[in-house]
Structures are given as C-alpha cells and as structure tokens.
Amino acid sequence: MPDTTGEPVPAEKGQVQPQSASPDEEPRIGVYVCHCGDNIGDVVDCEQTAEALGKLGNVVVSRSYIFMCSDPGQKLITDDIKEKGVNRVVVGACSMFLHEQTFRQAVSRAGLNPYLYYHIGLREQDSWVHHECPEEATEKAIRLMSAGVAKARLMRPLEPVRLEAAKHALVIGGGVAGLRAALDMARRGLKVTLVEKTHFLGGRTAQWEHVFPTDEDARTLLRGLIEKVLAEPNITIHTGAEVVAAKGYVGDFQIRIRQQPRGVSDDFEAVEQAIAACPVEVPDEFDYGLTTRKAIYRPYEECTPAGVVIDWEHCTRCEKCLEFSNNGGIRLDDAPHEFEINVGAMVVATGFRPYEPPQGELGYGEFPEVITLPQLERILASDGPTGGRLEWNGHPIRNLAMIHCVGSRQIEGVHKPQPDGNVNDYCSRVCCTATLSAANQIREYFPDVNIFDVYEDIRTYGRGHEDYYLQASENRITFLRYVAEETPEGVKAQKGDQQPRLGRVKDHLTWGEEIELPVDLVVLAVGVMPSPVDDLVVVFKISPGHDRFLLEVHPKLRPVETAVTGIVLAGAAQGPMNIQESCAAAGAAASKVEGLLSQGRVELEPYVAQVDPERCQGTGECVRVCPQEDAIHLETFSVSGREVQRAVVTPANCNGCGVCVSACPNRAIDVQGWRLDDYEAMVDALTAEIPALEGVV
Amino acid sequence: MSDNRLDVDTLVVGGGIAGMQASLDLADQGYQVALVERDPSIGGKMIGLSKVFPTLDCCSCITTPKMAAVAHHDNIPLLTYSEVESVASNKNGFVAQVLRKPRYVQEEDCTGCRSCELVCPIDLPDDENEFGRTSHRVIYVPFTTAVPQTALIDLDHCIYCGKCIKACPPDAIDFTQQPEHLEIEAKTIVLATGYEVTPYDAKKEYGAGKLGNVIDALMMERLLAPTGPYGRVLRPSDGKQPDSIAYVQCAGSRDLTLGVSYCSRVCCMYAIKQAMLLSGALPMADITIYYMDIRTFGKGYEQFYQNAKTMGIEFVKGKVARITEDENQNPVVRVELIDENSRVAERTHDLVVLSVGMLPGWNPQATFGVPVAEAGFIQIPDCNVSPTVTTQPGIYATGTAAGPMDIVDTIMTAGAAAAEAAAYMQNHKEQEPAVPEAAPAMRDKRSTVHA
Amino acid sequence: MKTNAQTRAPKILILATLSGGYRGADAAGQSQLEYAPDTYILPVMSAAMFPESFYWRAFERGVDGIIVMYSGTDSPYKGAPEKTAEIINRTYERMKERGLDTQRLRLAAICTVCVRPFLKEIRQMNEVLDEIGLVPSSLPPAREAQAEPG
Lengths: 697, 451, 150
Ligand SMILES: Cc1cc2nc3c(=O)[nH]c(=O)nc-3n(C[C@H](O)[C@H](O)[C@H](O)COP(=O)(O)OP(=O)(O)OC[C@H]3O[C@@H](n4cnc5c(N)ncnc54)[C@H](O)[C@@H]3O)c2cc1C
Ligand SMILES: Cc1cc2nc3c(=O)[nH]c(=O)nc-3n(C[C@H](O)[C@H](O)[C@H](O)COP(=O)(O)OP(=O)(O)OC[C@H]3O[C@@H](n4cnc5c(N)ncnc54)[C@H](O)[C@@H]3O)c2cc1C
Ligand code: SF4
Hints:
The structure holds 3 protein chains of 3 kinds.
Chain A: E1 29-34, H1 46-54, E2 59-65, H2 71-84, E3 88-93, H3 96-109, E4 117-121, H4 134-154, E5 161-164, E6 168-172, H5 176-187, E7 191-196, E8 210-211, E9 216-217, H6 218-230, E10 235-239, E11 241-249, E12 252-259, H7 271-277, E13 282-283, E14 292-293, E15 296-297, E16 309-310, E17 337-343, E18 345-348, E19 352-354, E20 370-372, H8 373-380, E21 391-392, E22 395-396, E23 399-406, H9 431-445, E24 450-455, H10 466-474, E25 478-481, E26 490-492, E27 501-507, E28 513-518, E29 521-526, E30 528-530, H11 534-540, E31 567-569, H12 579-597, E32 601-604, E33 609-611, H13 621-625, E34 632-639, E35 642-649, H14 659-663, E36 669-671, H15 676-687
Parallel strand pairs in A: 1-2, 1-3, 3-4, 6-7, 6-18, 7-10, 18-31, 20-29, 23-24, 23-29, 24-25
Antiparallel strand pairs in A: 5-32, 8-9, 11-12, 12-17, 13-14, 15-16, 19-30, 21-22, 26-27, 27-28, 33-36, 34-35
Chain B: E1 5-7, E2 10-13, H1 17-27, E3 33-36, E4 51-52, E5 57-58, H2 59-72, E6 78-79, E7 82-90, E8 93-100, H3 115-119, E9 123-124, E10 136-137, E11 139-140, E12 152-153, H4 163-167, E13 180-186, E14 188-191, E15 195-197, E16 214-216, H5 217-224, E17 244-251, H6 267-281, E18 286-291, H7 301-310, E19 314-317, E20 320-325, E21 331-337, E22 343-348, E23 351-356, E24 358-360, H8 365-368, E25 395-397, H9 407-431, H10 440-444, E26 448-450
Parallel strand pairs in B: 1-13, 2-3, 2-14, 3-6, 14-25, 16-23, 17-18, 17-23, 18-19
Antiparallel strand pairs in B: 4-5, 7-8, 8-13, 9-10, 11-12, 15-24, 20-21, 21-22
Chain C: E1 12-17, H1 21-30, E2 39-44, H2 52-60, E3 65-70, H3 80-97, E4 105-109, H4 115-132
Parallel strand pairs in C: 1-2, 1-3, 3-4
Helix pairs in contact in C: 1-4, 2-3
The structure holds flavin-adenine dinucleotide (2 copies) and iron/sulfur cluster (SF4).
C-alpha cells in the first residue's frame, strides 16, 4: 500500500537529521523582541512586550534585545535552544524579507529544524506605521507576537521536498538551439540525449548559406558546432526520432522515443544508382519545394549524419532500388524502433517553420514569379536549385521586389485569418535583417538587378543589423513604405506583359502615390511560425501561448522555464529568434537544467499540499479544482477489507497554491507550513482577551 | 573574507540584472561567486524603472526578489561599492585586486535603521540627472529597496557635525575608515558592466539640455515610478500638468551626427510603455510618438504596439529635425511628416521626452584586457554560436555590456554566460590530474550517434 | 442589524500574499505612513486556501472587517486568483443570507509597491466600519458548517 500521508519522502537517507520536535512533543517556545536600535524600541515598549509574551502558555523564554540580527542577538537564540531546550522560535523584528533567512540559518545551526521558526514584522508593520500611538503599537506588538506563539504551538518540522535527480537531460530538436544546449550541458558533466525528428542535424540554419550579422557561411558555422557536439562523449544522438510518451516529474521523467529506421546502411555504395532507380518524385522540403527528390534520398550534401535515407511516407515499396542492394544495403522491411530513457529534465528546442502563404496571397501560388524568402535563400545558395545563380524559370532576374511582413504583424479584421482561424499578430523578428542581407548580397553579386524593398517598418535592431540597412540604402535599393491597412495588392500580369507587376503599392515615402512595379520576381519575406508541437504539448502538458509558440512562466522572472518544473525551452520554439539569440537562450536553458540536476538532487520548498488520510473521504474535489498538472490524484486503498479512494499528492508537482484546501469538504488537506489550523489559531490570538495584556495596556 | 583574500570560482563584475542573474545561475549550481558592484547597492538601471514592458509588471516586484536572492545566497559573497582595479592571470585563472571604497559606516554593524538620516542636517537636492534616486541626506541608505541596506556618507558635503555618530544605535559610523584592498582569486570572470544612456544634452538640435520642458526617458521613468519624487507627472518648468506630450524616437540612436549608427533596441518599447502609463495617469493628455521605424520585435511586443495604437496614442512617422521653445516654454517640434507628403511641420507640445539610446558603459580593455568592438561594446568574436565568449579564455560578457538589449534578452545572455563559465570550469577541473574522471579512455570517446 | 456598543476600535484583519500585498505593507512601513493600529496583517502564500468558513469564523471571533490583498493577475499561482475571487463571492452570498453587511469583506489586488492603494483600502474599511459599526457579538449560526476538526 503506497504511502498515503502525502509526506514528501526524503530521497537521501542518512542525511544529518536535525534534532527536531516531533508533532506531539511539548512545544517549548522562545520569544525574541528586537528593538532594532530605536526603530522598534522608540515606539513599541519592547521590554513590556517580552514580559507579556512570557506569560503565555508554552513560552519558556521571552527576551528583548537591541539587535536580534547581530551576532550576539543570534547567539541568544542558539544558546536558548541548546541550553533551555527551546524547540520553537518566534522573532519579532524588521521585515521577514530582510532577516527571515538569517534567523532560519541561526536556528538550524543550533540543530533545530529551520521551519520551527516564525517571523513577525514589528518594524515595517508596527513601529514605523504607528509612531503617533505608542500604546496601541505596543498592544499590537503583543497581539501579533501572541499570534506568532499560537502558530508556533502548531508548527511541525518540515523538510524540503528532496527528489533524486537523474543527471541526464533530454534535448528535443537538433537545430542550433538544441545542439548548443546539449553541448553546454554535456560540457558541464551531464549526460545528454538529443532527439531530432529529421534525419540530419542543424535544423533550419542548414538551409541558409550566408548568415547575418557575421556574413559567415552557415554550413561552416554548423560544422563547427556539430563537430563539438560529436566530440562530447556525454552526448547520445538519435536522428529520425521523436518523443511519443512521457511520465514522471522533475528529476525522474520516463520518456518513450520512437525512431524511424534509415532503411539504408552506412556502407551502402550504389547510392546514385538506387536514387536513379526510384520512381517516386516528391517536392524537396529542403529546397522549399523548388526542386524534387526521390523517396530514397540524401537530405543534403554534407549533412550529418551523412548518407541516404528512405522516406517511408512516400516509398511505395516498389523495390526498384533493391536491385542495387547487395547484401541488404537497403532494407525496406525495417520497423521503427521504440525505447525508453530516464532523464531528470529536458530542453524543448523544436524550432520554427516558415509561414506558408495561402494560394493567392500577393499572387503566391498563382504566379510562379512569386516566391518566399526561404526559397530565395535556397536560390542564392551554391548547393541550391540554380547553383547560386539568380535566375528563375531559366531567365535571369532583372527587377526584383521584396515584401516584408508577409504572415507577420497581421491585424484581425484587416488580414485574412489562416484556415485554423488564427492571425499571426506578432513580428517575426528575423525577416527584416534576413531580407536586407539577401538584398545586399544580390546587389553585390548581381549588380544589374534592381531591387524594390516594400516595407512597413525596417527592424534591423540587433548588434550589426543596422549596417545592412545603411548598406542597402548605399546600394541604391529602392525603399517603398506601405501601411498595414493598405497592404500591396499582389501580382497581376496583363495580356502582352513581358513581366508580372506588383500591383498597387501605396508608397508612403513619396506622396502616398499608388504605383505598379514591373518586376520579374517577387519575394515574400514570410514570417516565422512554431514547428508543429501539438503532440509534445499533450505529452508534456506544457502550454503554447496566444501566438502558439511555447510559453514561458514569466518573461523576466523565469524566462526559459515552462509551467512544468524540469521542462525548459530554447530557441525559436519559444518565439522568433535569430541564431545568436537561439544560442543564448540555449545557454540559459542549459544553466537552468544544470542548476536543477548538477547536485544529483532537486530540492523544492516544503510548502506543498498534504492529505490527512484519516479525514480524506475520497470525494475527489481537490483533484477537480487543482490547477496544476498531476499534482494530486485519487488512489484506491483497502481499509479493513474495503476498497476506498484517497487523495495522494505528488509533492514535486504541487506549488502550494492551496486551492484544494478551501475546496475540501472534509478539511482533510492543508498546505504544509501554512495550515488552516495555524491561521485560525492566529485569528483567535489576535481577537482574544489576552490575560497577559492585563496591566500592560 | 579575512586577510583580505577571497577565493571563488567566478568573479562577476557589475550587479545589474545581468550580473545578478549570472551570479544566481552559477551559485545555484554550487559555484562560489564574488559579485563586485561599483555602486552602493546592486540592482543596476532596472531598479530605477517604473514598470517594465511588455507585461507592465511593476519593476521593483521583479528586481527586488532577485536582489534578495543574491544577498542571501550562501554561495555569493557580495561586494558593493567596490571596483576591480587590476587583474592578472595565474595557472588557476585570475587574481583581481579589488578596491572597497569607504562608506564611513561599518557594513557589518549598520542595520539600515536610518536613524542617522533623521538627524543629518544636510539635505542634498534631488539630482534630476541621477537615475533612480531622490533627494537624500549626506548620510543615507541609497534607496528603500537597496541591497545591502547599509548607509554611506557623502564626505564632499559633510560638515562633520557628528550628529549621526550620536544617533547611530549600533555605533556603526566610522569617519576614519580607509579604502580597503581585497584580492580575489577566481577561475572565471563574467563582465556585466551594463550601459549608459545618451547624455541628455548631447544633441544641440534638441536644445542641448537647455529647454525647460524637454526631458529624457529616464527622467520620465522616475516620474512614473511609484517611488518617484512627485508621485504625479508634472512638467519641470512650471509644475503644470502636461496635456500634450511627445516622444522623439532615436534621440541618440541611428544618428550618424552623434557617431551612433546602431539601434538601441529598447527605446521603441519603453516609449510605448511610458505612453501607455501616461495615458493611465493623464487620461486627457494627447500623446504623440515621432518615429522612423517602430521596432517592436520581441515576444508580445508587436501586440503591445497595436494595443497602444488602439488606446489612441498617436504614432507619427517622421524624423524630428529640431526642437525649440515658444514664449511659454512649450517645446516646439520641427518634424518632417512622411505620411503627409513629407511636409515639414512645427508642432507645439507641453512636454517632450527624448527617447535616448544606449551607450557602452565601462571599457574593460585596460583592466581585463578584453577589447571592445566597433561601437564600444565588448567584442564577441563568434557572436552567433557563442554570444557571451570574449577574446579572453575564461572571461565572458553578458547583458548590455555586450550591446543594447532589453531585460528579457539580458537575462538570456546571463544564463548563457553562466553556462559557458560552468563548462569552462568543469573542463579545467578535469584537466587536474587528481580528479579520476580524467581517465584518458573517457576523453577519447566521442558522442554516440544512433542514426 | 444591531451592533454592539462602540467600546473598542474596529479590528481589521488583512490576509496579504507574500508575493504582493504583504510586501506592499512593508513598503508602506518603509515610507513611514501611518494607518490605524488595530489592523493585523497575516502573510499568506495564496488566499485561495481559505474556505468561506474561515471568514465566517473570523467575524464570529470579533474581527470587524477583512481585506484580502491578493496578487490578482500578478499571482505566481495559476488559477488561484480566480479561485479566491470565487470564494469571496460565495462568502458575500452567505453574508447577505445571514444579514451581515458585505462591506466588511473586501478583495483587493495589491502589488509589492502599491503603497497608496494599500493605505486607501485600510482607510476605506475604517470609514465603512465607522459607519456600520462593529461586528455583532452573536452571529446567526452557520447553515451548513464545515466539519470541525476533531
Ligand atoms: C529566411 C530566413 C533567414 C534567416 N537567416 C538568418 C541569418 O542570416 N542569421 C541568423 O542569425 N538567423 C537567421 N534566421 C533565423 C534562424 O534560422 C533561426 O534562428 C534558427 O534556425 C533557430 O534555431 P532553432 O534550433 O531554435 O530552430 P530550428 O533551426 O528550427 O531547429 C529545430 C529542430 O528541431 C527539430 N524538431 C522539430 N520538432 C521536433 C520534434 N517534435 N521532435 C524532434 N525534433 C524536432 C527540427 O527538425 C529542427 O531540426 C533566418 C530565418 C529565416 C526564416
Ligand atoms: C528609459 C529606459 C527604460 C527601459 N525600460 C525597459 C523595460 O520596460 N523593459 C525592459 O526589458 N528593458 C527596459 N530598459 C532596458 C533595461 O534597462 C536594460 O535592458 C537592463 O537594465 C540591462 O541590465 P544590465 O545588467 O546589462 O546593465 P545595468 O543595469 O547598467 O547594470 C550594470 C551594473 O554594473 C555596474 N558597473 C558598471 N561598471 C562597473 C565596474 N567597472 N565595476 C563594478 N560594477 C560596475 C553598474 O553600477 C550597474 O549596477 C529600459 C532602458 C531605458 C534607458
Ligand atoms: S522582422 Fe521585419 S519583416 Fe519580419 S515581421 Fe518583423 S517587421 Fe516584418
């Protein structure tokens, strides 16, 4: 029968167990009133307060002292614990936010459980706000302190929720963010497993050639990073793999991974013949559909891991390639492989996908001359469909227009929603600089090409980004500005036109004139959308935000953490980011995981819900109202031969919000350290006719 | 800290949000971190802000818990009012000489009770240009939420009346205090020295700081802060409540006449934030933002901008050429209105706020041998993949010391710098022969790839 | 409803969240701003843990007014502020049913530096209590009292 007390079980036995009061041990309370120089003492009569408190039941010592926080002050407490057997401590001093930790540590040094101490703010909440009425202030001090004593009588020793933590982290996604996070954690000594859905590492970055703000070759950048990752013995990589199920909590997640077979062995030689033999032809996603590939294919030259794979979705099992497969070089009957790993925490780095304009948006899908920025990046890449030459459908490009914010900064009511009803009301952050970087490259390598840049705002915000804008102006790129309500209208060609036209750009940089631009290529700087993560959202119970990117707990207080302790975010999965920002976010995510796991143990505050199995009737009210995932559930127990339901708390998932406490009809649940009984006793003390007050006020 | 020596794993320089977060991230992993802050309190620029975009959280609510966490962390010795004078490297890392400036108040004894402030006869007026501080006595605790809560004496203005000595309950005042020198040995260093803003009188076209009702955005932060001096928004020249307020964007950024070509990254958002707060405080006021491009690129930022538009804040695309004032000291803005056929107009407002930019703060070249790049921010050679690694092995840069950025991005780089430093120290440790993990067999292995 | 004679100052209980109102109270202290001394502030993690019976019981014990200073939308606890509001609303119903002036119970979002709103809440509660008087010394019995501990 499982432990029903809900009491967190210390993971580490053999720890120095503080000599602490058992719940039924007679409370021996020490009360300490601080003068805080004159700060409290000038208004509150501290001696009288101490004297009055000394008369309360269970109080064995009651003192006042000029500075309780000073070393001699703290020594009063530690000596009383050791010599007078004090086992509960109440201090009235300045704000608890200043010195609660100080006194906790003092109490702990003396061998008492640090949670058998309670702090009352007599300065900020009494003497400093009642200068004008010292008598009432003294009465208030006595009442507040007597409430502290009332709580102290009921206090129980608490232990932080300690969980054994596997020093092993999972990284989901092998783009720059995932690679960088894996590297950081491995170098710090954690074991890392990285799963990547596709058959190659590097994510989207592999598809660009020339990256801002350094103008370096993305493949060189990636090779450097991947080599470092491969050189780490602590990292295990699974490509073609996805998470299919997960359970557990921080320190101990069980993750089920499914890996697709490659279908082709590493040493298979007749690669080109097999590819040639394959009759299936599908759009090549690596080139954003500008080219096609076979069902047996190489993701891209230079990819890691190297070699060819089979696209199981499109393979018709026609077995034409098998002709070249001597000794099972190609295996069409390989099945996906499932396995389970145990990790302490994970980094979700699933990245982004470019916005795909619907048929007809600005002529996309209607006119072949309208392409997206990722497609242009492929055209400019030396390993792309044109070998880096700026031509389209066999014709060199002369006039080119680039339109910003396609699929970004959409406004409800102005822009047509996507099929799922959403509009992308955010800025995609990377496209402005990426557009200008591409434009400058074109002006450099193909100086005859005229470029029109049609924008709303140019957002070259980052270090080194503005230079692209300045350079673009120097390069005589023509800028035209539109406003959201008057988005350019798209492309139309008329009979006899040699070129399509980009119709109706109302240019706000000149005189709001409507112009038509005769161009032979229109590039849509499409925005960034999160990779589809619906499955992970369900498996991990993490939440996407309003913009459908994965959501952090708080952008400043806890910017990489999700609401599930132990699951953190990195890179473009959280929101549009460039490479630099993705790598920084990955570092921050790694730091968080290292902080959680590097000690091999996770310690959480003991302020979590606790069920009293005697009172619990198994109504399930608590389970129904609990806003946290998996923090409380019902379990079946047998009590004198009868099957009953009882609530059981998973301390690791409980944040102590207490919603269950007020909901329980049987008063069977409490937040440790902040129990309802404590509060009722305190209210009683605050309202009681305190005998000790007689003769004082 | 006895014998004036301190042995730690990491030395963090600068106690703004970047330095605090990096310290916490390292200390939480069990590393010892010495945090050295030049000012008497940690908190940096952030603690003086009003509310922060894009969530409009109260800034103090975000900063003070981090400050307290730093102050109470067992692994973080905190050295405020201190400066690193020189750094040498040795086989274990670095040896820094740190100057602890005298406060003339014993840090260990002062309880922050402020009894001294009550008796000190000299009140130093509110320094309008100083960020986050209101008027104070010659002896003072820097501000209500300062960490540590320790008083200090501004000797330049002290008349040595001795009243504070008598008033101080724990006898903490010590006029004989001398600067102290402390040697810190550390394996790694994180530079988090932050930024400065464009001096408010930098641009002569904008009145060179001489126009009574032209203020900068930092001053507006203070006017809007709950801890601010007036608790209300009044214009400086005559204390009148402004009915028409204008923001001039890029006042110090993207301005080649000032030698600043870059974008400061935060000004669009803080201007919008302030405009929103102002329209709450002064519901009847007209608020205009003159801009070149609105750069609300971060998570949730564009929506913030759109909300501001719906709230009726007026966004006008145009570069402000000049600001003058009329006979009533109302600022007059001369602006090219791009959306109105680039017509040049003069518009009169009651108060103009300059959205000043971010300039590099402290130059670490001389002390740390870490060079700065183009605009004076710390040079980061492999900025894409290793955005916090400087040219010096073992030295990392975070936050605005490495270029303009907002708090969210600053916190990200702080975590990244902590991860880099931790990894560096781990590898360093493994090279020491005494540690068994250094078995050569392990080091030869490579990661396992299951393709 | 008749109240007992004004023999004492009205007693106000404040439940203030550690992440919000309790810090706001400290901030008021740091600014040394005076308020009525018969105001007792208890720190709470989140006010969502208090059932209706808690409030009722406090009134029975002689608390004249209760202000719940929660963190509202700034709450670190998902779902808790909504729950708190729900419980307070139900308590209002109960108070109405039993003839206790609902002005005795207030819910207010107070942040860590909300000094002025903090003081305003206390002042307003005092004004209300001055007008409606102290809590009656005997309240009608609870209709379906929560199971008492035992
Ligand atoms: C047109 C364009 C040009 C750009 N140019 C530049 C530039 O010049 N400089 C720059 O700094 N930035 C540039 N960027 C931005 C850059 O591409 C991103 O910053 C970077 O790719 C983000 O890295 P990431 O690892 O977060 O995501 P990705 O690169 O998207 O990687 C995510 C990885 O996770 C994998 N994955 C997704 N879901 C799962 C799952 N469920 N399980 C397992 N694996 C999964 C994906 O297959 C992918 O490999 C550009 C972006 C665009 C759109
Ligand atoms: C008007 C204005 C409003 C803003 N509003 C927002 C907002 O709403 N939201 C937002 O996200 N961002 C905002 N920002 C930006 C925000 O202020 C910065 O992102 C953030 O404060 C940067 O933190 P930091 O730690 O890098 O630098 P800083 O805050 O400058 O901290 C640097 C610290 O280092 C110390 N230091 C410097 N040199 C040395 C040295 N040699 N030795 C020791 N210590 C040293 C300094 O004293 C300081 O404490 C705003 C900026 C401005 C100007
Ligand atoms: S980065 Fe530029 S193009 Fe991309 S959405 Fe933002 S403003 Fe539009």
